[in-house]
Amino acid sequence: MSRPTLPDRDVADRGLLRLVLAVPFVLLTVVAAWFCRLAVTIRPAGVWDDDAYRGIEVSCFAAVSLAGAVVLLWLPPSVRRVMSWPWAVPAAVLVAVAAARWATLPH
Questions:
Q1: Which end of the chain is more exposed for a tag (fewer CB within 10 A), N or C?
Q2: CA torsion, points 81, 87, 89, 93, in degrees to nearest 10?
Q3: Radius of gyration of the chain measured on its C-alpha atoms
Q4: Is residue 76 within 8 Å of 38, Cβ to Cβ?
Q5: What is the structure's pLDDT at 6?
């Protein structure tokens, strides 16, 4: 015999779980966006400006780490059932932008 479902309660539970999961998704994405913006806007004064290059590297690392955490948090099927893919897309874009900036730094 199949168990009866309670649609109203299930919808309410999903909404509450979505709200709880939205907090780390949004906070990590916003902080990652700030670091990504920092990495893109820092301009070294010249090839000798090691401090600026180090700042770009640290900003890229922070952006990739934080946004990557959002993407990793989204990967389990139990989370994907509650949080649809648009929640992870901004973080994935930030990972791509920060990684591209990091890869184009002169070494």
A1: N
A2: -140
A3: 19
A4: no
A5: 52
